[in-house]
From TrEMBL:
Iron-sulfur subunit of the cytochrome bc1 complex, an essential component of the respiratory electron transport chain required for ATP synthesis. The bc1 complex catalyzes the oxidation of menaquinol and the reduction of cytochrome c in the respiratory chain. The bc1 complex operates through a Q-cycle mechanism that couples electron transfer to generation of the proton gradient that drives ATP synthesis. It comes from the Bacteria. This is Cytochrome bc1 complex Rieske iron-sulfur subunit. The keyword Signal does not apply. Belongs to the Rieske iron-sulfur protein family. The chain crosses the membrane at residues 59-81, 101-121, 165-185. It comes from Streptomyces benahoarensis.
Length: 353
């Protein structure tokens, strides 16, 4: 029998062009499959048994509590494990105990929050499927009101206000997890304490030519010359040389005393020899350019310019403050420091007054 013949025997009301029992949209006549609609909703055990709902609530709370404990363990790892402690873990091999503990505890903290939220949604929040017709992108006032009503209904069905145990433990877990980020920021490096305020210069330490490694005499500094110096005892092969020279680097110039404008600078100099930090006060670049006629030094990085005849003050560029001066004198024919710099060298930092 042909298709036409078969259709002729089918009652008119059962043709696929009609609406389904679920009042779905009309199906095109050339589509032989009607919209089956949504299946009947099956209630979960938590929906009909309050004891089961309580058990699920406790499980969710346990996940959030586990996250809180893992976050506390994450922070405690910084105290318990030294940074250089190595342990053997099969099959990972030899790894840092601190890194392993940080990874495990932070992973557990984040996983527990996610697992708790998923279990909450799967067992306690409403899971009834609702079909809604598509609508234009621009919502009508009635639709907006419906969305707000649906949101309020969803909030009510989630039990967020009624199930205080879940709510409070979730807030606790979410409040503690950000502390991991604070601890990670703290781990960017050791606290500077007072290391930024002091250098290797002390009373009685001789000035050594950085090029020749010989102690400097006043006659070694010619008018108009620029000489770089370091503290006596700081050797190039020192393991901490780069860290120390970054603060101790010194430059010396000889200016006619009558051309020195700053009174303190004149008192801290010797026969016109002035000593200033070589580290720019902008971002810490080494200063290396000197103009003999103007007594200006120039930082090659961002062109900050300082006047060495007027207290090392900034006359151009982004530097925030003057170059620190080192008080020097002469003993037994050699230049030496009277004290450390009166202020921290290099760029500004938060704790700087």
């Amino acid at each position: 029998m042909s298709e036409t013949g078969r259709h002729a025997d089918v009652p008119e009301e059962s043709l696929p062009s009609e609406r389904t029992a679920h009042d779905s949209a009309p199906v095109k006549a050339d589509n032989p499959f009607a919209d089956p609609g949504l299946p009947a909703h099956e209630h979960r055990i938590q929906d009909i048994d309050e004891k089961a709902a309580r058990r699920s609530e406790r499980v969710v709370a346990y996940f959030f509590l586990l996250s809180m404990l893992a976050t506390v363990a994450f922070i405690a790892s910084y105290v318990v494990f030294p940074i250089d402690k190595i342990v053997f873990i099969f099959p990972l091999g030899h790894i840092s105990a601190l890194n392993l503990s940080l990874g495990l505890t932070l992973g557990i903290a984040l996983f527990a929050i996610g697992a708790g939220a998923v279990h909450w949604a799967r067992t306690l929040m409403s899971d009834e499927e609702v079909a809604d017709d598509r609508h234009p992108i621009e919502a009508e006032p009635e639709v907006k009101a419906k969305v707000l009503a649906d949101f309020a209904q969803g909030a009510k069905e989630s039990g967020f206000g009624r199930r205080k145990l879940i709510r409070n433990t979730m807030f606790g877990a979410l409040a503690l997890v950000p502390l991991s980020g604070v601890v990670l920021l703290r781990d960017l490096g050791p606290l500077p304490e007072k290391k930024l305020r002091g250098t290797g210069w002390k009373k009685g330490i001789r000035l050594v030519n950085q090029s020749t490694n010989l102690p400097l005499r006043p006659e070694d500094i010619a008018v108009g010359s620029l000489t770089f110096a370091k503290p006596e005892g700081l050797e190039d092969d020192d393991e901490e040389f780069n860290n120390k020279i970054a603060k101790d680097a010194l430059m010396l110039v000889r200016i006619q005393p009558q051309n020195i404008k700053d009174k303190q600078e004149l008192e801290w100099s010797h026969e016109g020899i002035v000593a200033y930090s070589k580290i720019c006060t902008h971002v810490g670049c080494p200063i290396s350019l000197y103009e003999q006629q103007t007594h200006h030094v120039l930082c090659p990085c961002h062109q900050s310019t300082f006047d060495l005849s007027d207290g090392g003050r900034v006359i151009f560029g982004p530097a925030g403050h003057a170059l620190p001066q080192l008080h020097i004198t002469v003993k037994d024919g050699y230049l030496e420091a009277v004290s450390d710099f009166a202020e921290p060298v290099g760029p500004s930092f938060w704790e700087r007054g």
